[in-house]
C-alpha cells in the first residue's frame, strides 16, 4: 500500500467518523426531545386522571349515588342498562326507547323518601 493510498483511506475514515458523530448527535437530540415530550405527556395524563376523578366524585355526590341504598343501586344499574324502573303505566322492566331519560325512573332512584 502506498503512502498516498494510506492517506486517502485515513482521510475517508475521518470523514465517515465525522458523519457518524453528526448522526449520533442528531439521534441523541431526537431521543432527548422524545423523553421530554413523554415526561410532559405522563404529567398531563396524571393531571387529567385526577381531574376526571374529581369530576366523577362531584357527579356521584350530586346524583346522590354515594348515599344510595343497595336496592336503589340495583335500580340505578338496571336504569343505566336501558330499562324502566318506574311503575308509571306499568313500564317497570320495559326497555327505554333509545335510552331516553325518564324523570319518573330518576325520581324512583334519586328522589327523596321519608
Automatic annotation (TrEMBL):
<protein>
    <recommendedName>
        <fullName>Replication initiation control protein YabA</fullName>
    </recommendedName>
</protein>
<dbReference type="InterPro" id="IPR010377">
    <property type="entry name" value="YabA"/>
</dbReference>
<keyword id="KW-0963">Cytoplasm</keyword>
<keyword id="KW-0479">Metal-binding</keyword>
<dbReference type="GO" id="GO:0008270">
    <property type="term" value="F:zinc ion binding"/>
</dbReference>
<dbReference type="GO" id="GO:0006260">
    <property type="term" value="P:DNA replication"/>
</dbReference>
<dbReference type="GO" id="GO:0008156">
    <property type="term" value="P:negative regulation of DNA replication"/>
</dbReference>
<keyword id="KW-0236">DNA replication inhibitor</keyword>
<feature type="binding site">
    <location>
        <position position="105"/>
    </location>
    <ligand>
        <name>Zn(2+)</name>
    </ligand>
</feature>
<dbReference type="Pfam" id="PF06156">
    <property type="entry name" value="YabA"/>
</dbReference>
<feature type="binding site">
    <location>
        <position position="86"/>
    </location>
    <ligand>
        <name>Zn(2+)</name>
    </ligand>
</feature>
<dbReference type="GO" id="GO:0043590">
    <property type="term" value="C:bacterial nucleoid"/>
</dbReference>
<feature type="binding site">
    <location>
        <position position="102"/>
    </location>
    <ligand>
        <name>Zn(2+)</name>
    </ligand>
</feature>
<comment type="function">
    <text>Involved in control of chromosome replication initiation. Inhibits the cooperative binding of DnaA to the oriC region, thus negatively regulating initiation of chromosome replication. Inhibits the ability of DnaA-ATP to form a helix on DNA; does not disassemble preformed DnaA-DNA helices. Decreases the residence time of DnaA on the chromosome at its binding sites (oriC, replication forks and promoter-binding sites). Tethers DnaA to the replication machinery via the DNA polymerase beta sliding clamp subunit (dnaN).</text>
</comment>
<comment type="similarity">
    <text>Belongs to the YabA family.</text>
</comment>
<comment type="subunit">
    <text>Homotetramer. Interacts with both DnaA and DnaN, acting as a bridge between these two proteins.</text>
</comment>
<keyword id="KW-0175">Coiled coil</keyword>
<keyword id="KW-0235">DNA replication</keyword>
<feature type="binding site">
    <location>
        <position position="84"/>
    </location>
    <ligand>
        <name>Zn(2+)</name>
    </ligand>
</feature>
<feature type="coiled-coil region">
    <location>
        <begin position="31"/>
        <end position="65"/>
    </location>
</feature>
<keyword id="KW-0862">Zinc</keyword>
Amino acid at each position: 500500500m502506498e503512502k498516498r493510498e494510506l492517506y486517502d483511506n485515513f482521510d475517508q475514515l475521518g470523514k465517515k467518523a465525522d458523519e457518524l458523530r453528526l448522526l449520533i448527535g442528531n439521534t441523541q437530540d431526537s431521543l432527548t426531545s422524545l423523553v421530554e415530550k413523554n415526561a410532559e405527556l405522563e404529567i398531563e395524563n396524571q393531571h387529567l386522571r385526577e381531574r376526571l376523578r374529581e369530576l366523577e366524585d362531584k357527579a356521584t355526590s350530586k346524583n346522590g349515588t354515594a348515599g344510595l341504598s343497595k336496592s336503589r343501586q340495583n335500580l340505578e344499574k338496571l336504569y343505566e342498562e336501558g330499562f324502566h324502573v318506574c311503575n308509571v303505566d306499568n313500564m317497570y322492566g320495559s326497555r327505554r326507547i333509545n335510552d331516553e331519560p325518564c324523570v319518573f325512573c330518576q325520581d324512583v332512584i334519586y328522589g327523596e323518601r321519608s
